[in-house]
Amino acid sequence: MASSKTVPMTDELYSYILGHSTPPDTVQEGLIARTRESLGSTAVMQIPPEQGTFLTLLTKLVAPRFAVEVGTFTGYSALAIARGLPDGGRLLCCDVSEEWTRTAREAWLAAGVADRIELRIAPAIETLGGLVSSPHIDLAFVDADKGGYIGYWEALVPRMRPGGLILADNVLYGGDVVDPGRDSPAEAIHRFNEHVRADPRVEVVVLPIADGLTFARVRD
């Protein structure tokens, strides 16, 4: 049963939310437009503007020395995180597509944040496995292949500093996690959600931002 505080989302209410949040700047607007023009329906993989603003504000609050992104696509979320980094802060991006991340690199350069970002083109699980095993990551954002989420989680958690934050996107998967089809991406997300819920190493809440955002803090 939904809480009486839960407000159903309508087009009008969503427009109101966007109208009362810090809007995308010209670089972000250009990246949104280019992604839609070049990739069509695949552009749905890009995070929405309000989630980008949330990532920037959260990054500013956390002030991470080292952040990791798993799944970069055309670079909007990485741009949002990079803009919130403190002086000397670094972001490592993991992706497998040279084509999509070429667009990302151009946007990062236009936004003046390219020097804060390292992009590695390789399977993310290999990139994460190659990082030092001691806790050194302050913030992580996961938005990649849904079947890989548990593997990414297990690679990240031991490398997170105490108090570090892990964010995982698409954890509601259009609402299909409530009754996922067998062997579907929604079922993979459901397994991930159950895995995180049972993990004593973190405190966690699922937020109804966009397609669902897991917000997990690694315990001290």
The strands making up the biggest β-sheet line up spatially as 3-2-1-4-5-7-6
Question: Uncertain runs with pLDDT below 50, 5 residues or more?
Answer: none
* Alpha-beta content class: alpha/beta
Give the CATH topology: Rossmann fold
Total DSSP E strands: 7
Instruction: Summarize the amount of helix as a percent range.
Output: 25-40%
What is the domain tally? 1
Rounded radius of gyration (Å)? 17 Å
User: What shape does the CA trace take?
Assistant: globular
Largest sheet: 7 strands, mixed
* H and E order: HHHEHEHEHEHEHEE
Which architecture would the CATH scheme give at its second level? Answer: 3-Layer(aba) Sandwich
Query: What is the CATH class?
Result: Alpha Beta
| CATH homologous superfamily assignment | Vaccinia Virus protein VP39
Give the strand content. Answer: 15-25%
Ends distance? 33 Å
Task: Determine the number of helices (DSSP H or I, runs of at least 4 residues).
Answer: 8
Mean of residue pLDDT values: 96
Question: What's the arrangement of secondary structure elements?
Answer:
Layout (H helix, E strand, L loop, with lengths): L10 H9 L6 H14 L9 H14 L3 E5 L5 H9 L5 E6 L2 H14 L5 E5 L2 H6 L7 E6 L6 H8 L3 E10 L15 H13 L4 E6 L5 E6 L2
Parallel strand pairs: 1-2, 1-4, 2-3, 4-5
Antiparallel strand pairs: 5-7, 6-7
Helix pairs in contact: 2-5, 3-4
